[in-house]
Each structure stands twice: as C-alpha cells, then as structure tokens.
C-alpha cells in the first residue's frame, strides 16, 4: 500500500519556521493594537490589501492632503474621500475639527468607521445611498484603485455627482490627459509619496487654486 503522505508536498523546516514567525508577529501586532487602546484611525490600523490594489500614502503625504482638504472645504465643510482611506484616517485624527467627512470604499473592513463608511464599487459609480445628496460635498478627494481609463471614467462620475465643485484627484502621472478630459483637473507640483514605493509615478490633480503648487 502506498504511503498516503507521499503526495502531500512537505514544507521545509526552514519555511515552516518562517511561517510560524510571521503568524506570531501578526498575532503580536493585533494584540498590541487591542492592548494599547489602539487608535483605529491611524494609518496602518488597517493593513494594505494588495489584492484590492491598496497602497497607503506616507504619513507626510496623507497629512498634507488632509490639510489641503480642510482648507479647501472651509469652515464647517464636508469632505468626501473616495478610495482614499489614509487621507480619511488623517482627517479623523483632528479632534473637534470643524468639518465632516465620509469614506467611500470597497473594502468593508472600513465599516469600523460606522455611519461615515459608505460601501463603494467604482463599477457602479452612482449606486450610492439616498441620503448622499448630489453636490453635497465641498471637496472630493479621490484615488481610483486602478490606472485605467475605465476606472477613472467611472470614478469621475461619482466625483462629479458628489462635489459642489472642488476636486482633488490622486493618480498616476500617465493619467494626466484622461484626468483633464474626464474631470477638468490639472497636475500640481506636489508629489504624493506612498509608504511603500510604487513602480508608477504618482501625482495630484486639482481643478481649483490649491496649496499644492
């Protein structure tokens, strides 16, 4: 009789040890989060999920974009973050701030943010809750998950529906023409950075006089 174990691929002891170490680290990280009265709004509190094409901004970039959004929205302004959770998290760090913010995001892990979270799939750009009124946000910050014209075009429908006028778009430098075509936005001097370096050059685009030049 053949030994049943023969056709089961065996992991080398080295790989096994590495895996165990990885899981242990993960558990410790999760444990740390709960024990430190963990700040659920800080960047990295939700790990990047590359399968969803998620890449968080560096802390400086997220702060800079959040600051710009607050200035652009004005006192008591409303800000929408479309697929830009790290900017949302930075905005939430500002206690007692005089603005309100919503996060439109495909990743349901962000539902920990309660009523401010709106499930969003760019394939259905106007499939939004009824209480999200058209042109009810002073500024929309958007970072379409994919560098494709289709993704930009569909996200643009959402942006145009939500904004009273101001748009801050973050996407690849290669999307400059499409961004102008679909949203009438121009590239800023400010260069956004990510916590991990991306292969594609990334840029910011706006359709108003911003502080990003």
TrEMBL record:
Pfam families hit by this protein: N6-adenineMlase
GO CC terms: cytoplasm
Bilayer-spanning residue ranges: none
Subcellular location: Cytoplasm
Sorted UniProt keywords: Cytoplasm, Methyltransferase, Transferase
BP GO terms, sorted: methylation
Highest taxon above the source species: Eukaryota
Reaction catalysis annotation: L-lysyl-[protein] + 3 S-adenosyl-L-methionine = N(6),N(6),N(6)-trimethyl-L-lysyl-[protein] + 3 S-adenosyl-L-homocysteine + 3 H(+)
GO MF term list: nucleic acid binding; protein-lysine N-methyltransferase activity
Protein's name in the database: EFMT1 methyltransferase
Organism: Pycnonotus jocosus (Red-whiskered bulbul)
């Amino acid at each position: 009789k053949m030994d049943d174990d023969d056709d089961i691929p065996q992991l080398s002891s080295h790989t096994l040890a590495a895996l165990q170490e990885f899981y242990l680290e993960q558990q410790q990280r999760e444990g740390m989060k709960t024990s430190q009265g963990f700040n659920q709004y800080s960047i990295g509190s939700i790990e990047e999920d590359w399968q969803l094409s998620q890449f968080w901004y560096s802390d400086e970039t997220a702060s800079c974009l959040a600051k710009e959004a607050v200035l652009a929205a004005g006192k008591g302004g409303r800000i929408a973050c479309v697929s830009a959770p790290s900017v949302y998290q930075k905005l939430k760090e500002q206690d007692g701030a005089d603005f309100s913010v919503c996060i439109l995001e495909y990743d349901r892990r962000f539902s920990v943010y309660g009523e401010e979270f709106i499930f969003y799939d760019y394939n259905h750009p106007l499939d939004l809750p009824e209480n999200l009124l058209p042109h009810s946000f002073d500024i929309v910050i958007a970072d379409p998950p994919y560098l494709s014209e289709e993704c930009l075009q569909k996200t643009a429908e959402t942006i145009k529906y939500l904004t009273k006028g101001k748009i801050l778009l973050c996407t690849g430098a290669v999307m400059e023409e499409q961004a102008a075509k679909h949203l009438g936005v121009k590239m800023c001097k400010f260069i956004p950075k990510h916590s991990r370096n991306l292969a594609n050059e990334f840029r910011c685009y706006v359709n108003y006089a911003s502080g990003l030049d």
